[in-house]
Amino acid sequence: MTRTSGDRTAEASPVTGPFISTWSAVSAFGIGRESFSAGLRDRKPVVTALDPDQWSAPATEACLVPGGDPRELLGRKGTRSMDRATGLAVAAVGRLLDDGTGTRIPGVDESTALVLGTSNGSVRSIMSFTRDALTEDKPYHVDPARFPNTVMNCAAGQSAIRHGLRGPNVTIAGGRASALLALNHAQRLQRSGHARSVVCGAVEEFSAERAWLDWHAHTEQGRAPLTGEGSAVLLLESGAPRGGAALAELAAVEVGLPHAESEVTAVLADCVRRALARAGLDADSVWAVAPADLPGTLGTAERHALDEALGGRTPRGLLCTELLGDTGAVSAAFQITALLSAAESDPESAGRAGVVTTVDREGVVGCALLRFPGPEHGRR
Amino acid sequence: MSSPRRVVITGLGAVTSIGTGVAEFLGGLRAGRSGAKPVTSFDVTGFEHAQGCEIDDFDAASYVHNLPLREYGRASHFAAAAARMAVEDAGLPAHDLRQARSLVTVGTTDGESRDLDRLVQQEVAHGPERMDPVVARRVPAGRLSVAAARELGLVNVEAVTLPTACAAGNYAIGYGYDAVRTGEVEFALCGGADAVCLKTFAGFYRLGTIAPERCQPFDRHRKGILTGEGAGILLLESLESALARGATIHAEVLGYGLNCDADHPVAPNEDSFARCVRLAHDNAGIAADDVDLISAHGTGTKANDVSEARAIRQVFGDKTPRTVSIKSMIGHTMGAASAIAAIACTLAIREGFIPPTINHVETDPECDIDCVPNEAVDADLRVVQNNALAFGGNNAVLMLGRYDTGGPAGPAGGHR
Amino acid sequence: MTSPSIDTDLESKVKDIVTDILEIEPEDMTLTSRFKEDHDADSLLAIEILASLEKTFKITIAQEQLVNMVNLQGVCEVVAEAAARRQ
Asked: What sections of the protein cross the membrane (chain C) (predicted)?
């Protein structure tokens, strides 16, 4: 289902694939795109001391979204039983769809899809619900209003409900690779005619439950980054631009599944090489890389893969984990918005490409390749 | 890009409470077997009734050969077992599968919530610092698809889990269909998996939607769902590929539709679901008149069955095809439900029969459909529709067709 | 339904629960204003009210009683009856 070349001849745009026309983020840097860009520019890690009365987590600090409680983010109406992950996603999608004056951005219509990545929905919602079943007078003395929160598509469903998105509504669970898998899903929906534009991104919440699970599951990993959270979403369009300028073309997404940790470097390097080949680009055209940057052996393997695939070249590096913590399922989405944000203020990006890589602990590795419009075309 | 390819189903893997393995499952469907029995996977003290459709004789080790079983939860075991069965059913050598670019996509509602139940038990009893780290590592839902891919030794693979609740199986199959159709992958293993857990039972019980004894879709006196478990995985490949390797073609995937009610988190919206059915018909290039059978979402709750029946009548008018619910037999297997139902549809097409809606006494006049009560019937089926609705207003409708060697499937003799 | 005695204490506790769940101000609800028609309640909210009452008053309310729980008056009667049955 490739578009006919006539679609954009008048524009003489270099963009040929699906393209990103806008994005937003709700992160520890604050609410919205400007806060995210400012935080990334200042490169000051955001650390919150955890209130022990609110969070009984195995840590004293985390990278929390300021005012990240659903009631603070969205007001009182309809948020009484909303969980944090859902609130973060609803807020990020709301920011994306609003042009800043309370009007919906162009490019979004009745068939616009939503594809949202998550690690496990809200493990806090699931575990609290089960805890009630085990500790209340009767096992069914659970809060019915919170039952939908225990299902992993809650954030996507609520985002659709609150923002009237009636197209395909997809939730992806792929750990750190969630946002890359979501992008791939989004472009397949477009190619096969299920949606013309897709709101695509990911969400992750902080909770004591998540922190405990991570603490148990990954104690062998040595010093772990602080636990982080947030949501980042972008509008992926195809065809003639309607939602605004093409900030970047989604040139390729490639994923693989190494058998063992010892194969991460080889499989990820192969993904990056395949992505470049698919886009018809060489390693010299890579302006910046935004890796997952996990501590320990997985982070090392990721760096080696980039070295291998880029032939030892060292493009500009954009690191998010050291600023925003381990943001789990939203990490790759933040890496993408970091690339988009940096490209806006870096003329070196013009006509060149950015690479996002990820290595999920559960096995999936992958990359996305974004191509930025050339200087001769300006930013439409 | 070259012209879209036709996509066929050549392998089936089923883990269900009425039979594990496709032959056993087919036997159960034909006989109208019931998987209902008292729930044993968690302590049911305090519930006034606790029937369910659990699989009590599943021995993962007899199906799963390569996965370190202790490191994966029950839903992952189901997914890996069903994927292994589907590949074996397809007669596809493992080596050939590994050499090709593939997709493994598993839908789920609860992922490994069975393990989360257990971790909460440990936390309540001994404190959060005493949770079992091995069980904690099994929790991430992404592992369901990873388990299936790892079991088969796949590396050049996109392994993705779709937790789109109770419509997840159809989402996964639709995604596999698109990926094979556009030529991005050679093979897609897609379906769904879920394991019974306390969390979901307590939730549906609280909503008043768990039937005390049996699941009776479209019956005047239906009382709700029975929670079930299992997995269904289908192997999809291009028609060209299947013909080239001389594979048995069970059925063809004609297309699918997805949409979202954007209305209520749990209550279905019949207008929106009718729209989804039309999207599926358009995507498959068929007309409503072409549909010979509907495999309903048919949960057996008051709300679902009447909304679904009304949506069906909106689309089909007075010529409503026969509409059955296999949930009457295997309960509501959540994210696996529409995947297992898709396998039932495939078998129905291939074998020329319609599986019954069991436990049926008297059709609810508000539903007013022929649900093929209690006994399977023979039928010549060319086009079958598989419905799924989920929390969050996530609707997914899949269209399957018979593959005839004489020419393309579909009533128009070549709809694409 | 015969009305067991409903004291003002019970009524005020029930009202707090219901108005909190329906996200409305207590002064906007009367004994006979209808949850669904006047306060935008739906079936999930109705079950929420039932569930919250069961936990708060340590009573059991059959799902069939939902048809009587259409306004504050009806809810108070159902609660009083369930409480009386328990004693």
From this structure: none
Domain hosting residue C16, numbered range: 8-86
Residue A24 reports pLDDT greater than 60: yes
**Chain-chain contact of B392 with A156 (C-beta, under 8 angstroms):** yes
Contact at CB, B267 and C44, closer than 8 angstroms = yes
pLDDT tens for each residue of B15-24: 999 999 999 9
Chain A partners (3+ C-beta pairs within 8 A): B, C
Contact B207 C42 (CB under 8 A): no
Residues 2-41 (C) with a CB less than 8 A from some CB of B: none
Percent of chain A at pLDDT > 90 equals: 85
For residue A99, give the 3-state DSSP assignment.
coil
Q: Could you give all domains of chain B from N- to C-terminal order, each with its CATH number? A: 8-244 (3.40.47.10), 252-401 (3.40.47.10)
Q: How far is CA C54 from CA A150, C73, C80, in A?
A: 22, 17, 12
Q: Rounded to whole angstroms, what are the CA distances from A104 to A115, A202, B103, B317? A: 19, 21, 36, 37
Residue B397 in tokens:
């409708």
Contacts of A78 in chain C (CB under 8 A): 23
Classify the C-alpha dihedral A12-A13-A18-A21 as positive or negative.
Answer: negative
In this structure, is residue C1 part of a structural domain? no
Which pLDDT score, from 0 to 100, does residue C1 have?
A: 44
Going from the C-alpha of B23 to that of each of B19, B27, B46, B338, C50, the distances in angstroms are 8, 6, 38, 19, 46
| Closest Cβ–Cβ partner in A2, A178, A217 for B136 | A217
What is the value of pTM for the model shown?
Answer: 0.95
Residue B184's Cβ-count burial label (10 Å; 0-12, 13-18, 19+) is: middle
Alpha-carbon span B141 to B146, nearest angstrom: 9
* pLDDT score, position A358: 98
Residue B23 neighbours by CB distance under 10 Å: 13
Mean pLDDT of A125-143: 97
Contact state of B208 with C47 under an 8 Å Cβ cutoff: yes
